[in-house]
Amino acid sequence: MPNMKVVDIAGKEVGEIALSDVIFGAEVNAAVLHTAVRAYLMNQRQGTQSTLTRSEVSGGGKKPWKQKGTGHARQGSTRSPQWTHGGIALGPKPRSYRVSMNKKVKRIALFSAFSSKVNANELVIVDSIATETYSTKTMANMVNAVSGAKKTLIVLPAVDEKVVKSCANIPGVKTTVYNSINVYDILNCDKLVLAKDAAEKIQEVYVK
């Protein structure tokens, strides 16, 4: 892959960086991307929803009326599912929605996500993403200069509390660290903004 330009926080070109074809020039596998996004979203579910069955609802111990001779349909409990305040038939119970993926498939999905951003011209490399003070205005100006997109994902080489908190109040902007990035966040953003150091570390980790 040819070198990609590097810009500063004002959006001006200041150099170039060589990106690996293995990560940023891979063939985009749509099926694997779908699997990775589905697994990510499923794994976010807590699975704590729960309803009460007829055996768990209080009351209903007495037969509401005698079996025969009333003209009513026979009933054994006022907590049957057809009664108001009765139990729920076949309702949800706590369960795990966990979906696992093997390491090779995860890697293919991640490389496909990075490559899709390159192909769509939605990847920006910034030489350094930092701020001396907690300043939402500074980071908002940077995002407007280098991205200008509605949804922007900023990837840092390490946790920078000033950058993270300065970006927290900017609508549509999310920050993460290079070793915590996931396929869903990459595909869900309109612009992927990588700090140069983060891009180099990603290549160090995945290019053997």
Explain the overall architecture.
This protein has 208 residues and is α/β, with parallel strands linked by helices. It is built from seven helices and six strands. The protein has helices spanning 21-24, 30-43, 103-119, 136-146, 161-167, 183-188, 196-206, and strands at 4-7, 13-17, 123-126, 152-156, 173-177, 191-195. It has a six-stranded mixed sheet with strand order 2-1-3-6-4-5. Helix 2 (30-43) packs across helix 3 (103-119) and helix 4 packs across helix 5. The radius of gyration is 27 Å and the shape is elongated. The relative contact order is 0.18.
Helix-strand layout with pairing:
Elements lengths: L3 E4 L5 E5 L3 H4 L5 H14 L59 H17 L3 E4 L9 H11 L5 E5 L4 H7 L5 E5 L5 H6 L2 E5 H11 L2
Helix pairs in contact: 2-3, 4-5
